[in-house]
Write a structure and sequence with these properties.
- The chain is α+β, with helices and mostly antiparallel strands.
- Helices cover 15% and strands 37% of the residues.
- The protein has one helix and six strands, in the order αββββββ.
- The chain has a six-stranded antiparallel barrel.
- Strand 4 and strand 5 form a beta hairpin.
- The chain is globular, with a radius of gyration of 15 Å.
Length: 124
């Protein structure tokens, strides 16, 4: 089984978990990637509009032992994001429900070198 096939199975599992623990439907978020930069980091590149990607998400909280008040705050959410699309970056935003998260950190879960899941630290 390839890494992409495993990532698709993980995405299906996230959708099922979201449906079973939420409102009965998978939780679908939107990864918002800003436009590419021009020659310098202060000038937007051509196009000027962000790109959006639909992602399957399961929203959880960090364990208390991980919350230090600075790097990880008690109000931060731990978002499990499928790896069938692009890898979230610190310059992206993630819309989930009525929240728009700033991505503070991303931990890819990549056994064998292929990402099958991303753990995203999101801050509203």
């Amino acid at each position: 089984m390839s890494g992409a096939e495993i990532a698709a199975e993980v995405a299906a599992g996230l959708a099922e978990a979201g449906a079973e623990t939420g409102s009965g439907a998978p939780l679908i978020g939107t990864l918002i990637r800003p436009p590419a930069l021009g020659d310098d980091p202060w000038t937007p590149g051509p196009g000027g509009s962000p790109t959006e990607f639909a992602v399957t998400v399961v929203k959880t909280k960090f364990q208390h032992r991980h919350v230090d008040g600075e790097l990880i705050r008690a109000t931060d959410d731990r978002l499990l994001v499928d790896a069938t699309g692009p890898e979230p970056t610190l310059t992206d935003k993630l819309e989930v429900g009525t929240n728009t998260y700033t991505i503070m950190n991303v931990w890819p879960i990549a056994p064998g070198g292929v990402a099958v899941l991303y753990i995203v630290q999101g801050r509203v």
